[in-house]
Amino acid sequence: xxxxxxxPTNLDVALAVLTxxxxxxxxxxxxxxxxxxxxxxxxxxxxxxxxxxxxMEALVRDRGRLELLDERRRMLxxxxxxxxxxxxxxxxxxxxxxxxxxxxxxxSVALGVEALTGVPPAWVPVTLAxxxxxxxxxxxxxxxxxARLQVHGLSGEMTFLRELVEHHARKAVTEESxx
Length: 179
Hints:
The chain is built from three helices and no strands.
């Protein structure tokens, strides 16, 4: 196969192809960052669920000595339900980030193949890139829903902690006041 000499026209075409291939690479990098961040969020939920599980065991074990037992049980059950929904959303989001990264890789490959051979048609890499962007958007939207659940769960836990503090404050006042 004869080597084509590098002329300004050939160089311009090569640079245009390489530039076009870099855009999906940047989006692949963004997907990787999202994957790392989302994986960390999922790991934190797993750790939190394990601590909640220990808390449930403590409720069973120390049932007679704990105050506000029903409130504690309800709070722990609500937290477990919230974390379960969050874990499912994060798993879905991770899957979508991986799909988006794969579609962006396919888009980059299609750009290179199209530049070399003219096959597939030029609309294929563009369509793949748009599909990847849509999937990336869907995954980000899923993370927004998960973040709202996170705030909701934190709010519920803070409400219980306020009740616990108020309970102990009332108890302290009752114990300190003379009969």
